[in-house]
Amino acid sequence: MKARVHVMLKNGVLDPQGEAVRHALGSMGFDGVNGVRQGKVIELDLAETDEAEARKTVTDMCEKLLANTVIESYSVELG
Amino acid sequence: MKAAVIVFPGSNCDRDLAVALERAGADVTMVWHKDTELPGGMDLIGVPGGFSFGDYLRCGAIAANSPICRSVISHAEKGGYVLGVCNGFQVLTETGLLPGVLLRNSGLKYICKPVSLTVKTADSAFTQGYAAGSHITIPIAHHDGNYFADEATLDRLEGEDRVAFTYDDNPNGSARDIAGILSENRRVLGMMPHPERMAEPTHGGTDGAAMFTSLVGQLADA
After folding, report:
1. Which of A35, B9, B38, B112 is the residue whose CA sits 20 to 30 A from B72?
2. With contacts defined as CB-CB under 8 Å, which chain B residues touch A14?
3. Which catalytic residues are annotated (chain B) (predicted)?
């Protein structure tokens, strides 16, 4: 089973890289971009075939390594 | 005083830290990240600067989950002393031994230069060689040194006198100008500036030396 983990900075945590991208877009003539937030996508190829089990394991992975929950939120997509 | 310095793939200040401790009189052992146990009888564990595991995923995140770090955490939980410098500070926040996290510098640039710090507290084995309120010059060299924690955590750090150092001219966007913090029991210090790079006259200054002499003096008596 494949899992896709999306990791994003939480609201309220300044994202200087997103800000730099927003500035670059503005200077390229892309107007009207009010905000840019940059995150990560992590794809996992799992041996597990049970969806509930896979979700439980991937959530544990997120809590322990894939995300730092002090500053990041995550979501898990399976399929 | 016996100290261990942890070596991760990508550590590059491990020898500097070991030399600074040795010059101050410590007996230093280097410990590889794949080891599962620290050598016996260690007073201090040094987690050095560098780019452990290439800063992949997040700075310090993979090192924080390496086999030796479980022993470092249990050393700290038993009341042992731990010093994390630069990448070592990032590793300590990732292990949860210190609160908060180091984000990308607000200016997005890697910064390598001597900076002026204020010693905020002399109440720790690390900082008792300095006068609280004194200014010292120590180099920084980092891309991700922008200290972040929620407001309640920052209030608690300040209220409990756990901010060890602040920047006099904040170079990286750190909350409340924080450059280094102590754990609740004051025995774990994480700091972005490099005291081991300002520890003898040939470094261009010796403002970092007091940290190592004071640690060795304190822990030798312990």
Report:
1. B112
2. 103, 106, 148, 173
3. 86 (nucleophile), 194, 196
- Does residue B123 surpass a pLDDT of 70? yes
Contacts of B182 (CB under 8 A, 6+ apart): B121, B124, B126, B162, B163, B164, B188, B189
Q: A68 and B61 in contact (C-beta within 8 Å)?
A: yes
CATH no. of A2-78: 3.30.1280.10
B94 is catalytic: no
Residue B13 is a catalytic residue:
no
Contact (CB, 8 A) for B66 and B47: no
Domain positions in chain B: 2-221
Query: Which run of H or of E encompasses B5?
Result: strand B2-7
Residue of B69, B75, B142, B196 marked catalytic: B196
Interface size, chain A vs chain B, as Cβ–Cβ contacts under 8 Å: 36
pTM: 0.95
**CATH homologous superfamily for B2-221?**
Class I glutamine amidotransferase (GATase) domain (3.40.50.880)
Q: Could you confirm whether B59 is annotated as catalytic?
A: no
How would you classify the pairing of strands B2-7 and B27-32?
A: parallel
Burial class (CB in 10 A: 0-12, 13-18, 19+), B8: buried
A65·B65 Cβ contact <8 A = yes
Of B69, B86, B94, B203, which residue is the catalytic one? B86
**pLDDT (tens digit, 9 = 90+) per residue, A3-44?**
999 999 999 898 888 999 999 999 999 999 999 999 999 999
**Hey, is B173 helix, strand or coil?**
coil
